[in-house]
Amino acid sequence: MEISELGEFGLIDRLAKDISPKNDSTVKGIGDDCAVISPTEGMQTLVTTDLLMEGVHFDLTYVPLRHLGYKAVMVNLSDVFAMNARPRQVTVSLAISSKFTVEDIEDLYAGMKMACTKWGVDIVGGDTTASMTGLAISITAIGEARPEDIILRSGARPTDLICVSGNLGAAYMGLQLLEREKAVYDEQVAEARRSGSKEQMEMLSEMQPDFSGREYILERQLKPEARGDIIDALREAGIRPTSMMDISDGLSSELLHICRQSRTGCRIYEERLPLDYQTAAMAEELNLNVSTCALNGGEDYELLFTVPLALNDTVAAIDDVHVIGYITEEDKGLALVTRDGGEHQLKAQGWNHLKS
Amino acid sequence: MEISELGEFGLIDRLAKDISPKNDSTVKGIGDDCAVISPTEGMQTLVTTDLLMEGVHFDLTYVPLRHLGYKAVMVNLSDVFAMNARPRQVTVSLAISSKFTVEDIEDLYAGMKMACTKWGVDIVGGDTTASMTGLAISITAIGEARPEDIILRSGARPTDLICVSGNLGAAYMGLQLLEREKAVYDEQVAEARRSGSKEQMEMLSEMQPDFSGREYILERQLKPEARGDIIDALREAGIRPTSMMDISDGLSSELLHICRQSRTGCRIYEERLPLDYQTAAMAEELNLNVSTCALNGGEDYELLFTVPLALNDTVAAIDDVHVIGYITEEDKGLALVTRDGGEHQLKAQGWNHLKS
Fold it and tell me: B87 and B97 in one domain?
């Protein structure tokens, strides 16, 4: 169905129809000038926002809309968890070009709702409008935490252990794989067009690349998970990290933020970087250095945090948490100790979309 | 200066450098995974968000970036006032294409800061990213109010008086004027190109259209003001409206929302629609029906609210507030009484960007 058949209000009614607030703190959801939230007594409110643009942050030739919706919400929830807080509400704004159908937008929304349901988050409002160009998605997430629980980037101290959850570089390798398959496909289509073979064109339209054995890295790229489970595990273990953030631009870039804001240096060990087998295999196949991918790949949405040295055994006992190094005095700089014992300065390369 | 010279983090540092939170409730502004807000005890939190796309919501050939920034913030503050609440914080997300310089973005930000300063609002975070196409601006505003002060759209009751602040249709006429001058200019440029006259081209590049006597309607389009002053005046007069919203899509469309959500009808009088002289003059010049412009023009950002009939004298005594009709039982429908005593059904035409 064309969106123009419904119009703006019709589309909003349709998207909103089975959204009902489940959180105690949500007083009023979609349908007025503002959403109304009732803060829990003694809690502070956390706010984070992201703007995703077609052609910069996602490529719809290989990203299904449902996954895109899921990811768009999840990356914002990840920012709330990274403050050691609980996400409660999101607002969702969409700018939609005429190439999308009502069913497309429902798919996108289905993914968003799935991510919200997973963490008990309400969609409480937003804006739906037209775009002359591609799709734009802006999500704002709102969470809450007791003031004493909130963890900033600035609290790391020398001798603190540097920890990461999960493993690194997988989402980046998934992206490389998708980009490669897209290039192969585009090439085949161009060739079929040149030869004018109708049969070949039909075959191509049916073709699906074989991703067997690479499911994990694809899932990491297409359907990342915010690590609220790690937040729970830390709480259960009685550990309060001294600093924390999520890894969206790559480990190097995020360590730079923590060290700059904490006025410290750091020392991490290449051999300790957590890697999945599929990440390493794909890196080898593409002739990339897997450590570089883990350091600078981005979109991991794992948690990076520091804990006092005394908690070494406690933190090491938590499933899926890895100690990769420690915090140093500021004048020591940011060092990566390589497998051969060499020392390199860490640089933030990351996802710098604005740099040419 | 090219944005690529600074990169994302450099640009954010530069934009954030003279932003320091002034609100007591702002605990942590720009610089971490989330902003942290400390809700005032006993208050609820209001959240609203808007996504503005180049080519749909604004045309940079005649909208200065500073005005655009001002307006982008103001329209969100207007939504907070429309709940009878106070805006406290905003987040600002920008997607920027390579045609913009650092100075352009500073201009845009200067306008945003001006709007924030006017109402004591802090910029507490956001996202800055690249765009492959035009400029996208997403703003989320956060406000607070005591639960008993919050006014929804759903509280209007039969016999309540319907009031609007300021006057209507002016922003729409300003837009028509700008669009007309743009068309004239484009035509002259095309002609100069055809004739190959270099002299004529130079003359055109210096030319500024004469807007004298139309300053008011231009300002209403380019630099709208959220009516926090009316919220203050109502409070001082001891009036609590039964329903309220701001007029962004046009009076007809907003009345439809209030009546639908309150399960009422309404009856408004054409002769009572508040109009500015410049609006009427421009409508006549363009051969448009001025009442239609006032009813459906949009972007007024005035307040539409209802008050109990008994408050007639009190509300009429407030400067710049006009009673334009009253609420009826639902089965009476939405009626406009024309100057000649005829009766028409009100329809929402409004700004339906998604309708072709």
Answer: yes
